[in-house]
Amino acid sequence: MMRNLAVAVIVAAAIGSTCYRDAPVPVYAAAVTHKARMQDWPVYGGQSGENHYSSLSQINRGNVKKLAMAWKFDTGEKGSIQTNPVIVGRVLYAFTPAHEVIALDAATGKLLWKFNSGVKGDQPTRGVAYWTDGKNSQIFAGIMNYLYALDPATGKPIESFGEGGRIDLRKDLRGDYQLQSVVLTSPGVIYKDVIIVGGRNPETAPAPPGDIRAFDVRTGALRWRFHTIPHPGEPGYETWPKDAWKSAGAANNWAGMTLDAKRGIVYVPTGSAVPDFYGGNRLGDDLFADTLLALDAETGKLIWHFQGVHHDLWDRDFPAAPVLITLKRNGKSIDALAQTTKQGWLFVFDRTTGKPLFPIEERHYPASDVPGEVSSPTQPYPLAPAPYARELLTADMLTDRTPEAHAWAVEQFRTLRSGGPFVPFEVNKATVVFPSFDGGAEWGGPAVDPTTGVLYVNANDIATTGMLVANNPTADLGARTYRSQCAVCHGINRTGSPPAFPSLIDVESRLTPAEISDTIHHGKGRMPTFPNLQDDTLTALLKYLRTGKSNEAENSVAGGKKELSHEEIATGRATTSGGQDSAGARVYASHCAVCHGDQREGITPSFPSLVGVGQRLSPQQITQTIRDGKGRMPSFTTLPDEQLNTLLEYLRGPQPATEVESASSGPDWMRYLFTGYNKFYDPDGYPAVAPPWGTLNAIDLNTGKYLWKLPLGYYPELAAKGMGHTGSENYGGPVVTKGGLVFIAATIFDNRIRAFDSRNGKLLWQAQLPFAGVATPSTYMVDGKQYIVIGTSGARNLKGPQGGAYVAFALP
């Protein structure tokens, strides 16, 4: 990225505790040597090549146990920090949970300046990009749909870039730009004088195309674009229905990209096309969705490509940018790249030609039986290295944490379809996705040591389930809008999959209509923006969110209207709960429906159904569970006895059945809907598969063999009971150093950062963080001292402490 010259940013004077956009502290630039530059962390992922590697070795195997906290910067904000900080000279650049760009003294953590764009919205922000020509320098920051160019010395927008210091990424795509949803979650890469970016698009139609674009770093002018949904005459056009480019969406680069500055090649992994789970409107292989692209960084022309999933029906797109590495084969050096996947696979290619360095075969998989769908008969499968996550869930792999949890898991597993990778979803029957929708590998990406050729990757190893249901075009506008735009994440019944996707039942008791509208239009967390939902459509959606009712004739029960549970859809029966307007029903709606559904159907298998709970548990047992909590369920110690009694009466009440007509077909892209991302968790809130639930892996890319593999993370309450090696969900990546260490935080429940011996995986050091370190660390040197810094936040674990802070460690 910074090819010959670099800029060190040096603090001029004493710094106050708070500096704002309109009163920045002056920071000056001076040229430094290549050696000094190597002490920085100048790009997202460390150096050009995304390899998460540092040649620093002051902190090493022999002294890492002495590491102590050097400084902490508390943002004073709640939310998510996923940022891998960039460090140039002695200045650290990063984001706060509220999307403010900050500059900190990298040696002390003191705030130098803060830039608040004033742009509404809440989306992941994983890093900034730094550019210099040796004379001038700029910070590029993606904030929602805008790409800003900021002065590294002051944080002020550079007015000559775009329109007043920013460009709107929604423009020049398709249709009315104000109705488009594009946000920049991962920073772009810079080659010479262009910045190359992708963007995050919605998971549902309508969505804009995922064009890869390059902009002039000085002016913001568009220099080139690559159509990931090909236009007539372009390669790949024949893999889509005719004229798909006019309406098909996504195939976007949300995961970041990698630059080979020497060759002038940018490697771009793309996401799936929309809608994610039903492809009746996009029959064909859908190039260049789910594809690793090698593009000429100067012109945008295609050099080579590899499609990882043909006609994706599982949201199995590439989760992170590839890493560059030079390998040894038969005594020869080969410049290679390695691409991780959500499936737990690793693809390794010659980065110049795209030739696989380990065999890949096209394997046959079952065909979809969903009407209107035509799944690909084959999918690529790497024969080496072996997967770093399990692929096929069988009954002997279910949890044995307790006899009760095991029995529950066995009973639930019998109702699921489990056939391994690329088994198409069915209508009205849940299918196991293993590893989960979140991988396998995730957006943090791997680290690779260029001196050894060893790659280090952390992985999730839990299961999720998903299924399709037939849509009903006779529903009113609000219900249709919810199902087409919201149900993919929040579930067909609005129950969500907390904490990633919150329940929307009773949402009006938590947010005003104006706040709900604002969230819809500007997004929040993993939720994209929906600026296209306006006027009558928005009004109808708000009404549906408030009532959960539509005018569907087939759902009419005694003259009323009700939503269908997953169980009801699967069995063809609808139930009435009786006494929907009773005091007990109101208590249930306020306190229980958020997890167990408005019809008590639960979110199988994450949150158990409460239908018939009165036959399974005594009133005393139900009362104790309500008062004390259980698993992921909090305690309700303050619930008044009167409300508790009415709730017990409601829970033990009957639910008579009535018939439901089958739903008819609608437009191709809406014929079938995905019911939501459901984690296969036991009733106590732990994965229903046997550990490990998260791992850290070391793979020699020269041979494809594993050096070591170990569980990563734990649940503190299980560790207290002797289960300290379960592993846990983890997000964010590792860093490997010349000092022989692998640093990683990532785990969401134990709030730890750890250092492992890169040779054998031995744990050498760990420290407690204020919040979960769901980000990738950075390491750098200032004034002769090496630091490790990590962003921490509480958004992934809502039961834990909330906040956001950057924490740096160094030797005494």
Automatic annotation (TrEMBL):
Keywords from the UniProt entry: Heme, Iron, Metal-binding, Oxidoreductase, Signal
GO molecular-function terms, A-Z: electron transfer activity; heme binding; metal ion binding; quinone binding; quinoprotein glucose dehydrogenase activity
Record's GO cellular component terms: membrane
One Pfam family it belongs to: Cytochrome_CBB3
Signal peptide as annotated in the record: none
Ribosomal protein listed as a keyword: no
PANTHER family tied to this protein: QUINOPROTEIN ALCOHOL DEHYDROGENASE (CYTOCHROME C) (PTHR32303), QUINOPROTEIN GLUCOSE DEHYDROGENASE (PTHR32303:SF4)
Protein name: C-type cytochrome
Organism: Edaphobacter paludis
